[in-house]
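hey so i finally got around to running the thing on that chain from the lab meeting. sorry it took forever, my laptop kept dying and i had to restart like 3 times. anyway pasting the input first so we r on the same page abt which one it is
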Amino acid sequence: MCHMSALATWTQGRHTADGVTHPTYRKGDGPGVIVIHELPGMTPKVITFAEEVVAAGHTVVMPHLFGEPGAPMSVGGFLKVMPRVCVSREFTKLARNETTPVAGWLRSLARDLHTDVGGPGVGAVGMCFTGGFALAMMVDESVAAPVVCQPSAPFAIGKERGADLNLSPADLEVVKGRAAAGCAVLGLRYRNDAATGTRFDALRRELGDNFIAVEFEGKGHSVLTEHRQQEAVDRVLAFFSEKLS
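ok and heres what got predicted. didnt touch it at all, straight out
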């Protein structure tokens, strides 16, 4: 079944870095924002959120990393995608103190978009499994507005993994330096979301006042999509407006 109709108004492209190529979808004008989809893929609700970022005056690029673009959230989608994600060398799943390998590709995408659209830098938003990817992208100076939504990798099995920020020690030092120099990080989650472990505590500890935490009551997970909170969407759009204009 083809699910591409939600992407009919988006321009499809490709980006290659370090010998790795992924498809991309682009739309809009203005400062750049990279929206990284969650598991199991680029669902209609992820695309809806991306459309809102476009409508707010941004050039949005969505990389397609796994799953079927436009397919709705489903158990079947998860079951199809998880084995592929688990064997892929591009993503860390359980390793601690390690930056996900796909971060290098995403930083390259951010540099290209920034070169193309200009401005003080680009925004990046990751969700769930890709939540921490926006933090890893911040190692590159082109990323000026990182947004971390319900960061869930490495999978929060055990206390230490649950606190891990999916960054190598060297990358963590760069992120801390950039935050100290004024590059704030916006984080959003449901307060009782077990998938995020104690990462928000770790972010507060490492980044101090330059980590802006927005937490919602309850046991939801996806603040911008499946369990959407309008305040979450509004806060992200305001953050991009403030940091990228």
